[in-house]
Amino acid sequence: MLKLSSLKIDPEFSAQILPLSFDELQQLKMNMIRDGKLTDPIIVWNKTILDGHTRYRILKKHGFIKFEVEEIQLANKYEALAWICKNQLGRRNLSPERKKFLLGKEYESTKLAVGGQPGNCNKVNRCDQNDHIDSEKRTCERIAVEHGVGSATVRRAEK
Length: 159
Fold this sequence. Notes:
Blueprint: H1 11-14, H2 22-35, E1 42-45, E2 48-51, H3 53-61, E3 69-71, H4 77-89, H5 96-113, H6 129-147, H7 151-158
Parallel strand pairs: 1-3
Antiparallel strand pairs: 1-2
Helix pairs in contact: 4-5, 5-6, 5-7, 6-7
């Protein structure tokens, strides 16, 4: 099991997550102290927190609270960013602007995780010019279906 002291926060990862309101933060803190445990694990990749930043900060101040850490396997930082965005898009308290931002960031990160933008082929992932166009189209359509929006909305959100 990972220790709290071994966990890291990546500023780019935490920037994707909307901070809790003051009331939400107080409620979370009260619940954690009252229960003496977390109801949801802290999710990490390579010891870096993907979900649970606020719970982590509360745990650091209140060492008696029991917690679990769940490690997930992802190929790279871009997959981790896409995972964070997808996870955040499942939240209820998102403004339309924030949802659009996360949708675009998920699309961008997913494309980068599988080899980058058109014309950005490296030695490891040799490809034809049209390979990325087809791949991006499928990625865009898949994300659109997952979130119940049109593929044009996903492409606009990335910009």
